[in-house]
Amino acid sequence: MNHKLRVLLITLMAFFAIVPQTFSDDTEKKSENRILAPGPGKIFMNLGEVVVREESDDTKNIDLPGSVDVLGYEKIQYENLDNALEILRKVPGITIGDYGNGGVPNGFTFRGHDMNSHGSHTVITIDGIPINSHLGSADGAPDLNQLTPEEIQRVDVIKGPIDARYGNWSRAGVIHYHTPTRGDFQKTKIALGSWDSQKAYVSLGSEHADGRFNQIYSCEYYTTEGWRDNTERTRQNAYGKWFYRPTENTQLGLLTHAYKSDWDTGGYLGETLWEQDPRQSSPTSEDDGGYKDLTEASIHLDWDINGNMPLETKAWIIDDDYARYADWGSGQTESYWENKTYGFLTNLGRDFSLARESRLRIDMGLDWRRFESHGEKWNTSARARNSKTSDTDYTFENYGAYLKVNYDPLSSVRLFAGIRHDRFNGDGQDNMGGSARDMKDYDVTTYKGGITITPLERYSFYANAATTFQLPNGTAKYVENAGNERDFFYWELGFKADPVDWISFRYAYSEQEEEIFREIQGVWVDEGDGIRKIHEVELNLFPLEHLELFTSYTYHDTEYTKGPNAGNELRCIPGYIWKLGMEYTLPWKTTELRIWYTDADAWYTDGSNQHAYEGYRTVDFKVIQHISDKWTLALDVKNLTDETYSEYVSFWSGENQYAGSNPRAFYLTLKYDLM
User: Fold this and answer.
1) Average pLDDT of each block of 10 consecutive residues along the chain (675 residues)?
2) Which of 60, 136, 153, 609 has a CA between 20 and 30 Å from the CA of residue 262?
3) What does the H/E/C string look like for 577-622?
4) How far is residue 199 from each of residues 146, 151, 158, measured CA to CA in Å?
5) Are 105 and 118 within 8 A, CB to CB?
6) d(Cα 114, Cα 112) in Å, to the nearest integer?
7) Given this model, what pLDDT does residue 23 score?
8) Backbone angles phi, psi at 222, to 5 degrees
């Protein structure tokens, strides 16, 4: 364990044990908590209660005419997760392609987009800061290994590219992670489990000066040997957050974060090796793996001007060193990156009161990101460098501006429109060959629009449409004959009903059309089109006071409509995803039982549809025992039926390639929570 983080963790735990009363000096006056619930006319589905402190929190991300799922702290706080991406297993229509690597961003399916792109089809934000990175593992990949799962307070999942605040990498949608930014609390968590998994987490928050100033400190240490050979990994995170509210309508914040990880990887298994032993590592992966060191800081300003003009501004810098060692069949190589990311965004809103039942909200914003990447490739042996094969520098800049309008002409109707313009430029330098490369400049304008109609108090209809895009992947933007951006057109129709207090139902249908290009002998060729048609049903039931049932069914109808694969299905997308969950609190109210079933249908592993994987079905079981108001003990049984399966399977080198997933495993967690 890193010495500095070890010292910080021990110090925090000692502080927690010795001086728990220090933070109670002047916090008698607390902000009033409110429960965010999907009431009449609300489109989002709430998967667990959400506590919000600021009036604007409940509409900032979810006041959109589309399918939105809100995963609240009630469903998050007792989870035992390897990484922050895993919490999305609870969200309809998402499957995780867990590679068993501690530092490579895992892929996931979302609105019919495959898991091969390491999640680069979705914008991920943490406390409003986008974390998608340029180059590294994949263009736009969001590395959620760097977020401590216990820090998550709430997740907003916005399906489809309907939010004009986001352009690049938002083809499937946007996912917002929220962490604590205020409060007076003391939390700790210790977890032990299969594969010698160990986790320690401590978080302390305090409010002072009648709630005008607060500070939060958190630290995590996690290690596991992994369920496959040669998949040991460790992770350490440390957070510091400070917020000051000089006036009732103004908040200033500083957030800092340090992350360090080291991992080994078992590599991918060809079908023959997989059938022999799915827990073995690839014979050439003995010394494969990598490391990542990351530090980041951001400043935040929230100012509600005159009570009806909210201004949100954030600026950040992220600095990381990343190395990946892998043997792809011709000897081990190292891909090494030094990345710096600079970012700024600002949003100014204005609320207008018109007639008695009319309301108008206008938002406009600017954002900027600059990525500076230095990359090297080496031939290596047991992670020792032998010869350098590549030495390059890249810059990539994105300027964005947008306008959003929400208009309620009647209390039962909401109209939405948005427009966004993005400009991209950059340059590259080959330090070994001495050549410079100017990235092709891109100017892209996208459009959004939608409507929500609530004819009756508990019934809502919604529709939306949006255009979006994808730039040529990775360094393909820097070649002389770089291709144009790929265009996407998306639309959705949906219906949501809460006919009685114990039923919540939603159905949505969406389509997304895209252009498909491929580079052939230096020329970008239009291969035709692809289409994704998605049916999704969600149902929450509360038939008894202490019983909750949840189910969702997502059906993917995908197809290449032109080109050499015309008529075939898109690869690495399950035919359907069915999720079923049950939660029951026993009569004595201190014991909770939770069971979760996932059925991911078969998918084709290549575009020609000559190869496929049968999919998988898993069952997870949890027992939560509340020992007292502050202490909770939880037992997790992952993959209860011990199914042999792989969440990620694709095709190359003449056969299916597998990254085997978790066999049956047990995890015991002790949690202390004083709010």
Assistant:
1) 44 38 36 59 74 56 84 88 92 88 85 87 96 85 93 95 96 95 93 96 95 95 94 96 94 97 93 94 92 97 91 97 91 95 96 84 96 96 95 97 94 94 96 92 97 93 96 88 90 95 94 77 65 96 93 96 88 95 94 96 94 97 95 96 94 92 95 87
2) 153
3) EEEEEEEEECCCCCEEEEEEEEEECCEECCCCCCCEECCEEEEEEE
4) 15, 14, 31
5) yes
6) 6
7) 34
8) -140, 135
Q: Residue 279: helix, strand or coil by DSSP?
A: coil
CA 509 – CA 492 distance, rounded (Å) = 6
The secondary element (H helix, E strand) that includes residue 13 is helix 3-18
Q: Are strands 413-430 and 436-438 parallel, antiparallel or unpaired?
A: antiparallel
Neighbour count for residue 75 (Cβ, 10 Å): 22
**Tokens 């933070």 label which residue?**
23
Rounded Cα gap, residues 380 and 650, in angstroms = 26
> Could you tell me the CATH superfamily of domain 3-674?
TonB-dependent receptor, beta-barrel domain (2.40.170.20)
pLDDT score for 356: 75
Radius of gyration for the chain, computed over Cα atoms and rounded to the nearest angstrom: 25
Q: Is-contact 489 512, C-beta < 8 A? A: yes
**How far is residue 666's CA from residue 675's CA, in Å, rounded to a whole number?**
28
The DSSP-derived string for 257-272 is EEEEEEEE----EEHH
114's tokens: 């495959």
The b-or-e profile of 219-235 (16+ CB within 10 A means b, else e) is bbbbbbbbbbbbbbbbb
488 bridge partner residues: 468, 514
pLDDT of residue 510: 97
Residue 162 amino acid letter: I
Taking the C-alpha atoms of residue 85 and residue 80, their distance in angstroms, rounded to an integer, is 12
Looking at this protein, which amino acid is placed at residue 535?
Answer: H
Q: Using DSSP, state whether 146 is helix, strand or coil.
A: helix
Q: From CA 473, how far away is CA 476, in angstroms rounded?
A: 6
Residue among 253, 391, 397, 267 nearest 335 (CA): 391
Residues 308/319, Cβ–Cβ less than 8 Å: no
Distances (CA, A) of 479 to 336, 442, 483, 653: 21, 14, 9, 27
Alpha helix (H) ranges present in 378-537? Answer: none
- Residues ≥6 apart with Cβ < 8 Å to 338: 320, 321, 322, 373, 374, 375
> Which token pair is 552?
């969702």
Which helix (H) or strand (E) segment is 333 a member of?
strand 332-353
In the block, tokens 């392609």 appear at: 97
Residue 175's nearest CA partner among 158, 188, 163 is: 158
CA distance 536 to 555: 6
**Strand ranges inside 114-231, DSSP E:** 122-126, 129-130, 154-159, 173-178, 185-193, 197-208, 213-224
Largest CA distance in the chain: 74
Distance CA 184, CA 204 (A): 8
pLDDT at 18: 36
